[in-house]
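Risk register update: the risk that structure generation would not scale has been downgraded. Supporting records follow, first protein first.
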Amino acid sequence: MNRSDGGSAPAVDPLGEAVIDRDGMRGLVGVLRARGLTVIGPTLREEALVLAELESADQLPYGWGVELDAGKYRLCRRTDGAAFANSAGPQSWKTFLHPARVRQWRAERTEDGLTVEADSAAAPRFAFLGVRPCDLRAIAVQDRVLGTGPHPDPVYRSRRSGAFIVSVECTEPGGTCFCVSMGAGPAAGPGYDLVLTELADPGDHRFWMRAGTPEGAEVLAELPTREVDETTRAAARRAVGAAADRMGRAMPGTDLRRLMADTLEAPRWDDVAARCLSCGNCTMVCPTCFCTTTEDVTDLTGDHAERWRLWDSCFDLDFSLLSGGPVRSSPQSRYRQWLTHKLGTWYDQFGSSGCVGCGRCLVWCPVGIDITEEAAALHDWTLRAETESP
């Protein structure tokens, strides 16, 4: 249920393919902006690779990589000029599709009474440049959670509608990546308009680009390109295939949904609770966590009020607050809720895992709690329990 062959072949037959160079990448950003799209991509800012609006492809982090471990994130210089040979940063595309703060309505007290106005600001049409396969899967997960069903989220749907996605296959996994064991990479799955594989060879820095939709094919046709040769195809496939063999982490090869259900009383939960700060960092950086709360604010006169929707976390003590107090009052119960939902009961709700193996929760945990280590410890406990049972 949580395994993948890590294959490097394109997920679908391309509607068009070509090779572009750095000038072609400049052309790509220019074409997308000319179509009225707000281009978002990775760029260097304040000693981190962040997602921000790009006015030019020259703002991409050419020549920069990252060193990752549990509780550790460091920028490093690469020996080549690759733009996308780095692992996921602290942000995900959730930041733009499911924003951390959304005003829902505002109210004004006037001489004629109270006027309430729903917030209806038009969302920009985004072009996401550099969506990694794990994040492409995360967008698909959030599409099911927030974009479909009997009560879809209108904010998410308005921002997701018309979004143009340029995915980048992974050739340089980080020390905390485990997308292969979650079936989410390093080759790109479906859902992109364009997908590229970067080859930063000396003297021939190029990108093998394929279209996945008619709109993607239209954009590709507007770029300065050269014909694809079999050498480039083969090199790109080898690079992605090699990345599948260099994952820094892996989930245990077992049915994670069953594992979570069978270990609710395992002593390991007390062990992790002794280390967990209940800060909620893991939920904030997770590309699929979606919980929110609401907050009403008013000015000092009482004549103006607003309601805001904010990201929330199941690690917050008040998240499960009822009239008699919080349902999950201990760090142990809150961590267990998060992990068993992410790897287990998410299947019951949405038909898939809630984890895509991006590793962000490891990197941005202040005490370096490792979700793969915790799952492996629970698996080991079940094996010992089986051998010790009469």
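Supporting record for the second protein:
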Amino acid sequence: MLATADPDATPYPWVLDAHDAMGGRLLTIECSVHGSTVGSSCGGLVTEFLASGRLAQDVCAPQ
């Protein structure tokens, strides 16, 4: 599950509720831009998770 602080996306408290209900891993991207993984330092984390099911960290602040 991926989450951003984008106000046009799902509100973050709802993301936390969904994560509590479903379990699994949650990657929080500290950015207010929807799609912020494209071309950012967080993109590799998403690729790693999709390829391996593992996350090296739970929070990423894109640069």
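Residues 12-22 form the longest helix (11 residues). On this basis the risk owner (M.S.) recommends closing the item.
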